Amino acid sequence: MTWYEKEEAHTWLRSRRMLTLALLLAAALVGDPTLAKDKTAGTDADRQDASQRVIRLGMSADFSASARALSIELYRGAMAYLLPLNNAGGVNGRRVVIKPYDDQYEPDLAIRNTLKLMGEDDVFALFSYVGTPTMNRILPLLQIRHDQHFLLLFPFTGADTNRIPPYDQFSFNLRASYDQEMKGLVDHFVAVNRTRIAVFYQADAFGRAGWGGLRRALDKHGLEIAGEATYRRGSPFDQSYDRQVAIMQRLQPDAVVCVGTYPACAGFVRDMRDRDVDCPVATLSFVGGEAMLKLLSAAEQESNKDYTSRLVSSEVVPSYNDDSVPAVREYREAMDRYRDAILLPDSLLYPHGKTAEQEYAPLPYGFISLEGYLNAKLFTAILQRMGADPRRADLAATVLAMGDFDLGMGQPLSFGGETDRRQASDKVYYTVVRDGRFVPFRDGEWEAWVKR
Amino acid sequence: MRIARFYQKTLFGVFAIIGLIVALTSALYVYTVDRQLTGDFLQNSRAIARSIADSNVDLIVHKNYSALQSIIDQFLEISSISYVFVVDENGVIIAHTFVPGVPDEILADYKDAKDVYDRALSGLGNFSEVTAGILAGEAGYVHVGMDKDYIALQVQTAIGKEVYLLSIILIVSVLVTYGLIYLVSRPLDHLRNYAWHSLSSEQHASPPDPSQVKRLLERTDEVGELGRIIRWASGGGS
Q: Which of A20, A126, A203, A237 can pair with A263 through a Cys bridge, CB separation 3.0 to 4.6 Å?
C-alpha cells in the first residue's frame, strides 16, 4: 500500500467514525431525551432535570460486605414498588430508576460514590442510603453543594445527624429515630422493673448514636447506662464475642440493648446464651431482624439451644406479617410477583467474583424490604405532587408542603407543618420471635418480662 | 598476611579509637533520635487532641455524639494513635474507640485530668496519653493515647539503620587500616630479613630475594636509608 493509499484509508476510517458518532448522538437526542440536555437551560442544573424523562435516584450502600443483607433488601423493597410503577408508565411519563453504588459500609467509599452520583450521574436526589457512619460523612457534601439542591431522602438510619442542625435541612426521613426507638424500649423495660440496662454497640458513629439515645432515654427516668461492650464494624457471626459477654456477666444487667448489625448481634446473643446470660436482649431496627433470625435459627439447630427467646426488636415499620395494613398487603403481593426481578446485578453483589458461599439468598419478606418499599412509595407520592416538570430545586418545598398524608401504613404521617417536620413517622413497633418468625409484641405482653 | 609486631599495638589502638567513635556516635544518635521521635509523637498527639477539643466544641456541647464519634474514628487511621476518648463536663466518656470496652485502668483514673498519662493496659500494651481541655476544661477533655511500643519500634528502626551503617563503616575502616598498615610494615619485614642475613652470623632460613633487596636499597625514604646503613655496616659499601 502506498503512502497516498494509506492516508486515504485513514481519512475514510476517520470519516466513518465521525459519521457513526454523529448518528449515535442524533439518535440519542431524538430517541432518548433523558440523555439530551436542554440547550436553552444554559448552566441551570435544575432545568436539565426538567428535560429528563427518567428520574434517577442515587443510592450508596453496602451491597457486598458485612451489612449487605440490609442494603440488598432495602433496594429490593424499593424496586418492588418501582418496577410495576415504571411498567405502567412511571410518574407523569417519567420512569423512576435507582442508580446503586456499593460502599461496603465504608465512609470514604460513600463519599466517592456520592460525588459520582452528584456529578456524572446528576441524580435527582440521594435515596435510601444505608448506615450512620457513611451518612455522617456525606452530609457535608450536600452543604457544600447546596446551590445544586441535592437532598438525601429516607436514609436507612435513625441517627440524629440528619435530624438536627446543621444538616437537617438537607434531608427528609420516613422512619422514626434511634432516640425514639430507644425511648420506647427503655420505657417498656423500666415499666417491668428492668432498670439496669447495658448496651452492646458497634464502635462507630452508628453505635454511638444508639448509645446516645439510650443515655437520653435512661436520663428521663433518672437512670444511667449500667455498662457497655463494643465490637468492631464488620465483625462476622462466626467470631467469638466472649470478651463482650464477659463484661455483661460482670455487670449482671436487667436487659441489654444491641446497637449493631445482624452478624455481630446474632453472634453476641449466641455467646450470651451459651454462657447463661439470659436477660432480655433488645435490638434496633437497623439490625436486620430476619437476617439475624436466620443466623440464630441455624445456630439453634446446630447446638440444640434456645437463642431466640427473650429477644425483642424495635421496628419503624409495621409487621410485614400484618395483613390488616393495606401497604403491607401491597408490599407482599409485589414481593411475591417480582421476587427474582428485583435483585441487584452480580457486579455489585459480588465484586470479587461469585462463589457458592457468598451467594445471597433473597428473603421473601422483611422489615427492611418493607421500609424500602415504603420509601419508594413515598418518593413517588412526592414526585406526583411536583407535576410534569419536577425540578430538584423544588423538591424540599414540595415535601414540606405535604402536610398529613397516608401511605396505607395504618398510621398518620406528616411532613412540614408549623414545625417544618422532616421526619414523617414517629411510630415504633416491637416484635419478638415465636415459632421461628417475628410477631408483634403488644404492650401488655411486656408484663411477662417483669423482674421480680 | 602478617603485620609487623611493631605495628600491632598501633593497629589495636586505631581499632579501639574507631570502635569508640562508633559506640559514642551510636549512643548519641540513640539518645537524640529517641528524644526527638518521642517528642514528635507526643507533639502530634497533643495537636490531635487540641484539634478535636477546639474544632468540635459545638458537637460536644450539643451532645451530637454520633458526629463526634465519626470525627474521632478518623484519627485512628494515624498509625501511632491507639485510642481516643472524649469526656464531658460531668466526667462521662461520651465517645471512645475501645473494643470490647473502656479498660479498667482508664476507668480508674481518667477523671484526674493530668496533662500526660503513662499507661500499661492489660492485654493492650503500654501507652502515652495526652489530654486537651475542651473550652479550657470547662466542657470536658479529649484524651489521645499513643502506643509506646509503636514509638519504640519506630525509634529502634531509625537507630537500627544508623547502627547498621556505622557498623559497615567500622568494618570497612578496620579492613582499610589493616591493609594500609600491612603496606607500611612489609618493607620493614624485608629490611629485618636483610639485616638478619647481612649482619647475623646465624644462617638465615630464607635469604632475601636479590631483586627485593635492590628495590629496598633504592628506596629514598627512611627504610631505604636504613637498608643502605645495614649494607655499609655489613661491609657491602655505602
A: A237
Q: Measure the CA angle with vertex A150, ends A317 and A173; round to 5°.
A: 15
Total beta-carbon pairs less than 8 A apart between chain A and chain B: 61
Identify the contact set of chain A against chain B, taking CB-CB distances under 8 A.
107, 132-133, 136-137, 159-161, 164, 203-209, 211-212, 216, 227-232, 243-244, 247
| B202 grid coordinates | 646465624
The CATH superfamily holding the domain A178-315+430-449 is Response regulator (3.40.50.2300)
CATH code given to domain A46-176+325-421: 3.40.50.2300
Closest CB to A229: pick one of B64, B68, B101: B101
Q: What pLDDT, in 10s, does the model give residues B151-205?
A: 888 888 888 888 888 889 888 988 898 888 888 888 888 888 888 888 877 666 6
**Residue B233 domain flag:** no
Q: Residue B123: which domain range?
A: 55-148
- Read off the pTM: 0.79
Q: Which of A303, A374, A312, A329 is nearest to A154 (CA)?
A: A374
Could you give the strand order of the β-sheet that contains A125-127, starting from the edge strand earlier in sequence?
A: A95-102, A54-61, A125-127, A152-153, A171-172
Facing residue for B100 by CB, picked from A136, A208, A247? A247
**Is residue B63 within 8 Å of residue A208, measured between CB atoms?**
no
Closest residue, chain A, to B104 (C-alpha): A247
